Amino acid sequence: MTSQCPRIIPLLILVAAGCASPVQQHETELSVHEIYVAPQKVPCTGVGPILCLQTRETPDQPWQLFYGEIQGFDFRPGTEYRLRVIEEPVSNPPADSSAIRTTLDQVLEERKVSSPSKRL
């Protein structure tokens, strides 16, 4: 029995290393960045007519429709935001859902806007 131990130990190490690999790969797929959120939602069409957030990555870019949701973010109309968000791929998302999950990391800035900013 002791003669089999030296053969089993390298096998166990390989199995353990193989199990750890997907976790490390998943961590590298996370993307953290800042986005700006407009003070109002606008009509858009997803599965049906809905209201979408407007987002952009820099203040000088035009607003883009954001069809999904930002988990943990509580949007208040009339407030413009600068957020740090985490994006991560979703494995096997439903056909009517995004392949990327966006989660609020931190509200970096928020300010009340008296007049709506230029819409899309």
From TrEMBL:
Pfam assignment, any one: DUF4377
Domain of life: Bacteria
Domain DUF4377 stretches: 36-109
Protein name in the entry: DUF4377 domain-containing protein
Organism field: Paracoccus alkanivorans
